[in-house]
Automatic annotation (TrEMBL):
InterPro entries: Enoyl-CoA_hyd/isom_CS, Enoyl-CoA_hydra/iso
Coiled coil start-end: none
Secreted is among the record's keywords: no
Name of protein: Short-chain-enoyl-CoA hydratase
Organism in which the protein naturally occurs: Clostridium simiarum
Keywords assigned by UniProt, alphabetized: Lyase
One Gene Ontology molecular-function label: 3-hydroxyacyl-CoA dehydratase activity
Superkingdom classification of source: Bacteria
Amino acid sequence: MELKNVILEKEGNIAIVTINRPKALNALNSETLKELDIIVDELENDESIYAVVLTGAGEKAFVAGADITEMKDLTTIEGRKFSVLGNKVFRRIENLEKPVIAAIHGFALGGGCELAMACDIRIATEKAKFAQPEVGLGITPGFGGTQRLARHVGLGIAKEMIFTGRMMKSDEALRIGLINKIVEVEKLMEEAKAMANLIASNAPIAVTLSKVAINRGMQCDIDTALMYEAEAFGQCFSTEDQKEGMSAFVEKRDKNFQNK
């Protein structure tokens, strides 16, 4: 499948994924979601990539939402299929072994906010704006908003955002814990790539196991979660990178991880 709406670039050990529909404010239609799915396949199978930056093209939007032009005439069955498709792709991003950083400028509304929440870390500019405005269109959030938002910001704030559909600026998003950091517009990609490269400088297997343990632990009781952690910790001692990292520390030299 030829990719028309999503761009994949690679710089060393990091990948940059760009939603490229600026004239439509990077709105997510079925075609774009399917292209994202293809890119996740490639990232999963590329052992040279250790971290990913996800962003939107243009000056106005990260992703302004799902494509209303496509959605407006859907039947009940078609609407459910569209939601299932979006949730499938976003869940794959959430479970991708490589950490994903959302670099957000402009509108991150509806499906855009949901896409950002499926990423591990969110960096936004001071001009970023966030909302789950679906109820104003007569629908519910359909790409994970009713589930991930409460996990990020708490039940009360999530219900307020979804029930009112109101838009918030990046300073409020930072205050409630929806994003990690605010940067100047011209420094957004520089900051996102710097963080991705910092992640990529660590032992890739250890980073992956940490992500898996965190994600699993959020879905279960603390005792089960600590068992996941102990399993991940133990697995690290079967890797060459653990031996390299600890030897380099003891020998006071630079480490050289090989993703092994």
